Amino acid sequence: MSIEQLELNPRIIKAVNNANIGVARDILKYSGPDLQRLTRLSASDVHHLQTAVAALFCKKTPVSALQLYRGECPEWDCGLRVSLGCPVLDGVLRGGLLPWGLTELAGPSGAGKSQLAMQLCLSVQYPVQYGGLGSGALYICTEDSFPIRRLKQLQNEQPSLRSDVPPDVVSSICFSDNIYVEHAADLGALMACVSQRVPVLLAQGRVRLLVVDSVAALFRSEFQADQGLERSRHLTAFATALHKLSASYQLPILCVNQVTDVMEGDSNHDAGLRPVDSKVVPALGMAWANQVMVRLMVTRLPGAVSMGTQSSARRRLEVVFAPHLARDSCLFGVWREGTRGLPSPPTQDTSS
Amino acid sequence: MKPVSASPLSPSVKVKLLNAGFLTSEELLQLKPLQLSKEGGLSLEEALEVQQILREGVDLPGEGGAGLGSTALELLQQEERSIVTFCSSLDAALGGGVPVGKTTELCGTPGMGKTQLCLQLCIDVQIPECFGGLGGEAVFVDTEGSLVVQRVADMAQAAVQHCCLQDQDAEQRDALKDFTTESLLGHLYLMRCHDYVELLAQVQLLPDFLVKNPKVRLLVIDSLAFPFRRHFEDLSVRTRLLSGLAQQLIRMASQHRVAVVWTNQMTSQLRGGQWELVPALGESWGHSATQRLLLHWSGGRRLASVFKSPSQSESSVAYSVTREGFRDAGPLASSPSGREQDSSSQSESKQDSSSQSGSKRPRTQEGQ
Q1: How far is CA A277 from CA A155, A292, A323, B123, in A?
Q2: Does B368 contact A at CB distance below 8 Å?
Q3: Residue of A31, A232, A270, A344 to mutate, testing the B interface (most B Cβ within 10 Å of its Cβ)
Q4: Contact criterion met (CB < 8 Å) for B363 and A54
Q5: What does the alpha-carbon distance between residue B262 and residue B281 come to, in Å, rounded to a whole number?
Q6: Quick one: which H or E segment has residue B303?
Q7: What residue spans of B7-106 are helical by DSSP H?
Q8: Fewer beta carbons under 10 A from the terminal one: N or C of chain A?
Q9: Which of B139, B159, B123, B182 minimizes the C-alpha distance to A70?
Q10: What is the pLDDT of residues A68-112, one digit of tens each?
Q11: What's chain B's Rg over C-alpha atoms?
């Protein structure tokens, strides 16, 4: 955006050009007295200049919370949630995933993170009235290859998982056509994917959910223990890229994360970043935790649960922090048809 | 209402404007430059000059206005009120609440309740004066997308119920008629900034907004750290931008009589061989806020510590975040104040795991 396009007295524009400040946004980086010194304009001229430039970057008029509540600003908050495909799980999240921002799903291996992620990729494809967004998903794998057989099984079992949806709606969606899978073997590939390939799919409107499985894998493997600062920088760059995508397209992003053990010494250091009685904390430390808006943890518990003829290990989904959720939790199991929460009281057998 | 004939313009321009029918300077300022040049028969350059000269009569920031400054006695007599937080122990530690006319910083790790406290203040600033509030409005600048309007609506509803339980006389009952969830949401202005340039631009435009909306008594920036913790090639640029921003916020707080509250993140720093958690944005940033609050966990409870304040001593109080909003801590720290009505409504919603064992019972909550 060049300075000539501002609605200002030509005299001011000439002075700014003579001062060689650059593009319009650089003007905001200078204080009033600095600009007076550089352009030799009077204080009131500089004030007009700053106001005109600021108006360029803040085109939106402030809205009231009431307008947002009534759904009058869909570009800010469309009021939707992405269902997880199960009413019990959705209950913990008060409806589902927020359609913007970074949601993290952390847990030890085998807890069911990838299962939940795949289930989300299916449920986002349903129409809005059934808790989806009517669009596809992009799944970025950084660890193992994508579990395509399990996806096929989940797809075939959708009618039994989603009994709330009419069968003709379920059969009309071609699930695997709308899930795009990318593999990123190193950090460079991951950044390239996020900054180049993802925007293309988003611009075409084919994708309204991004899953990164997992964030920790590449960052933990490519940086040594003493390269903490370097790792923070790359992590911040990655998170910034994700936030920019999320803001431009109102895109929910689910990041799967690993966990590390809690050291005895710093029990207060990261106390807020994990559930109170947890022995593990999501990986990548404070730098990553500051970027995440909603943090969910899944853990595997001793014992098993049964539903009909099937039996599954007992697991728990817990909200660690979220701006709109209480620190709630529920038990769930991973079944043939997908991940299903257990309504209270759960049927348990006490066999360990 | 200054007449055009008395304004400091050149005579030829004055004649043209008077012939065109303009009577007061206000009329001249209300039009855009292009319109003014067309209707007044002036060139665009002349129209811009006219508007600029007339505007110079208005106070500009940094130009000093007409005041000579006041004595300390005058300042003392200008009692500025505070915004309550609905957590009585925190209000006591702050000397009444978050002070109007000053800047307050909230630091803490993610999930401590900084956004919750900010939202609670946005609601509490609107409490009518007959209930001990300020009857003002609030501006919330969101930089990280952590504002979920359903949560604000829940907190607003709880505040309305709290006040309804306390009405004692006709004046209060009257005030309650306008104190509804809708009115609370309607007087909370929201702005969204996606990066630090937008934030700087927004702060540049805020003084004009505050002049147009003189009832605003609270400005919240949540969070201020988030857009600035990007990679800056030159950290001194960031320091310069932050100090400029701090100046603007401090000036806004005192000139427009608003309480400015912002949230900061925590970062790990190596101090003497140990990793410690310190507020982000650097050492020099620490001087920007008048008052700093640190929200942290200690022994399974949430504590708010006042660790920088010119008037209050350093202290820590327990608090909790419930469905109703930011409140006193549960039964572990009972306070004999009127807030006990909140504790009773809290007993049903055991949503803060301030007790040692987290809530393991599966729970279905009502959906959206």
Answers
A1: 36, 21, 21, 33
A2: yes
A3: A31
A4: no
A5: 13
A6: strand B301-308
A7: 11-20, 25-30, 33-40, 44-55, 72-77, 88-93
A8: C
A9: B182
A10: 999 888 888 888 999 999 999 999 999 999 999 999 999 998 899
A11: 24
CB neighbours of residue A344 within 10 Å: 12
Per-residue pLDDT, B65: 40
A224 confidence band (pLDDT: 50, 70, 90): confident
CB contact under 8 A, A329 and B115: no
Q: Is B191 on the interface with A (CB under 8 A)?
A: yes
Predicted interface score ipTM higher than 0.85: yes
- Hey, are the CB atoms on B358 and A276 less than 8 Å from each other? yes
pLDDT score of A260 more than 60:
yes
Q: Is the pLDDT of residue B350 over 50?
A: no
**Is the CB of residue B24 less than 8 Å away from at least one CB of chain A?**
no
Residue A327: C-alpha distances to residues A112, A321, B201, B342 (Å): 20, 7, 36, 19
Give the containing element (helix H, strand E) for A238: helix A228-249
Amino acid letter, residue A109:
S
Distance CA B222, CA B233 (A): 24
- B185 vs A16, residue with greater confidence: B185
What is the number of helices (H) and of strands (E) in chain A? 15, 13
Separation between Cα atoms, residue B133 and residue B127, nearest integer Å: 5
pTM recorded for the entire structure: 0.83
Residue B143 identity (one-letter amino acid) = T
Q: Is residue B365 packed enough to be buried (19+ CB in 10 Å), middle (13-18) or exposed (0-12)?
A: middle
Residue B303 CB neighbours (<10 A): 17
First to last CA, chain B: 52
Closest chain A residue to B245, measured at CA: A31
The answer, yes or no, to whether residue B273 has pLDDT greater than 50, is: yes
Residues of chain A with C-beta less than 8 angstroms from the C-beta of B158: none
Q: Which residues of B touch A341 (CB under 8 A)?
A: 362
Put simply, the answer to whether A328 touches B351 (Cβ < 8 Å) is: yes
> B114-124 and B149-164 helices cross at what angle (nearest 10)?
50
The sign of the CA dihedral B274, B277, B280, B286 is negative
CA pair distance B185, A109, nearest whole angstrom: 43
Task: Give CA torsion, residues A56, A58, A63, A64, to 10 deg.
Answer: -140
Please report which confidence band the pLDDT of residue B279 belongs to, taking 50, 70 and 90 as the band edges.
Answer: very high
Residue B247 exposure: Cα atoms within 13 Å on the Cβ side? 13
Q: For residue range B21-43, what is the model confidence (pLDDT) as tens digits? A: 888 888 888 888 888 888 888 88
Residues 286-305 of B with CB under 8 A from A: 296-298, 300
Decide: B113 and B302 in contact? Cβ < 8 Å.
yes
Q: What is the DSSP string of A172-196?
A: H--GGGGEEEEE--SHHHHHHIIII
